[in-house]
Amino acid sequence: MVETFGFSRFSNQHRLDLKRWIQGVVSSHKTLFTVLWIVTFASVFLWQRNIVDGLNIFRRIPQRTIPKLRPLAFNLTDFGGVGDGVTTNTEAFEKAVAAIARLRKKGGGQLNVQAGVWLTAPFNLTSHMTLFLAEDAVILGIEDEKYWPLMPPLPSYGLGREHPGPRYGSLIHGQNLKDVVITGHNGTIDGQGQSWWTKYRQKCLNHTRGPLVQIMWSSDIEISNITLRNSPFWTLHPYDCKNVRISNVTILAPIYGAPNTDGIDPDSCENMVIEDCYISVGDDGIAIKSGWDQYGIAYGRPSSNILIKNLVVQSMVSAGVSIGSEMSGGVSNVTVENLYVWNSRRAVRIKTAAGRGGYVRQISYRNVTFDNVRVGIVIMTNYNEHPDEGFDPKALPVLEDLNFEGIHGQGVRVPVRIHGNEEIFVKNVTFRDMSVGITYKKKHIFQCSYVQGRVIGTIFPAPCENLDRYDEQGRLIKRAPSPNITDIDYDL
Fold first, then answer.
1. Which of 265, 240, 120 is nearest to 177 (CA)?
2. What is the DSSP letter of 233?
3. Is 84 in the active site?
């Protein structure tokens, strides 16, 4: 028999139970309200983050990704590799890459290079491959150039950078690849460039030297947590690639006597991030390029959507971060932020000339520090080095929309040198929040010619007269008397 109760028949115990039940419900509702509030807040946060990510997508900058785990992994010793620094391992690398290439439909594979010194001639990578260098692993390039294959000139250069005709390939090379990772526990790829630099200076080479690592016409590339050193020529050269991330990479070469050992040279690349790197080399730390004169104009592939951040760079021969001089396909939408350049000849530089064509525009430098640098910011339009006599001197580059904000430092001889000319005018340059300690107490240390732009707020040292002055609220204070004033003193 089931007993039923009316409300009037509740006992004191039942009333107490009901009171506890109501309190529990109220308490549960408070808990529920709290949970719902947290969920709502988290949803708003995620929505805002998605909005930011969406904006990043519109900027077409690739987002940070976790390196893929391959379904299969191999050791180089599985293919006969010997890491004694004497045995040649070229065949072992080639066999390993061929085995991974057969796994492309299954997600590819990983090649582990264990601790040791693995001497090798140049070899190629394949798609869906991870090259993993263990701690104390060294891939060492053979010095004798007869083991380095010859390749056709880059189509946007027309000839080898140093000689007409073919050029030497890179120690590690790849073409038309997708989904390639080079990473590790800070293992090293060493090009043994000393013999190449000596032969170059003695003019004993008949072809252009090869890079250390070169990836061409490829996409979805990640290079991280390794050391690259002593490249024969440019160190890391992505050419006409998309979606590239380079992070936590150390790049080293002697700061003197190692010619053209640029650190990273994005060349006609789109959607690229370079972050958290240390670079000390014998030429530019980073040099963004897009082809050379008439060949680059005809190839027509710009470098665009590039983010460079959190770098420490030393370059006693050239500059920390350069754009050009080979920029004939155009360079746009580049952001350089949190850059520290020390003990260097120049900090940031844009270099071009008549005959280049192309453009450099929408370039932003933020939070840049100079420490013991001869010239901080350089824009030059007379870098007259050409592949041959076929260039068009009327192909004039466009330089515009260049922004400098948060520029600081000490021990700088000339903070700014902007050298436009009557043919190549530098347009829409902006300086804001700049304070650089200088080593010269003379006038004309902020040098300009044929430049139009503005200074917002107070900066040090005092800007050149070519630039309009605005206050912090963006109100015009003083219009420049003429943007064509020339105040360049190379003796300083």
1. 240
2. S
3. no
**Alpha-carbon 314 to chain mean position:** 15
Supply the pTM of this predicted model: 0.87
Q: What is the dihedral of CA 264, 265, 266, 272, to 10 degrees?
A: 10
SS3 52: helix
How many Cβ atoms from other residues are within 10 Å of residue 147's Cβ?
13
Q: Which of 432, 433, 434, 441 shows the shortest CA–CA distance to 413? A: 441
Do the strands 476-478 and 468-470 form a parallel or antiparallel pair, or are they unpaired? Answer: antiparallel
Helix (H) and strand (E) counts in the chain: 4, 29
Query: Positive or negative CA dihedral for 137, 141, 147, 153?
Result: positive
As a whole number of angstroms, the distance between CA 308 and CA 286 comes to 9
| Cis peptide upstream of residue 325 (ω within 30 degrees of 0) | yes
pLDDT tens figures, 447-480: 999 999 999 999 999 999 999 999 999 999 999 9
Q: Which of 262, 265, 283, 401 is catalytic?
A: 283
Spacing of C-alpha 348 from chain mean position = 13
> What beta strand segments (E) does 36-148 contain?
72-75, 84-88, 109-113, 116-120, 123-124, 129-133, 137-141
The pairing of strands 219-229 and 187-190 is parallel
279, 349, 158, 241: CA torsion to nearest 10: 50
Q: Could you tell me which residues are beta bridge partners of residue 80?
A: none
**Tokens describing residue 163:** 């000689």
CA–CA gap between residue 229 and residue 250 (Å, rounded): 8
What confidence tens digit (pLDDT) does each residue in 283-307 have? 999 999 999 999 999 999 999 999 9
Both tokens of 43, joined, read 């949803």
Q: How far apart are CA 21 and CA 17, in angstroms?
A: 6
Rounded distance, CA 264 to CA 269, Å? 12
Residue 109 near residue 69 (C-beta atoms within 8 A)? no
In 3D space, the residue among 211, 216, 213, 243 whose CA is nearest the CA of residue 156 turns out to be 216
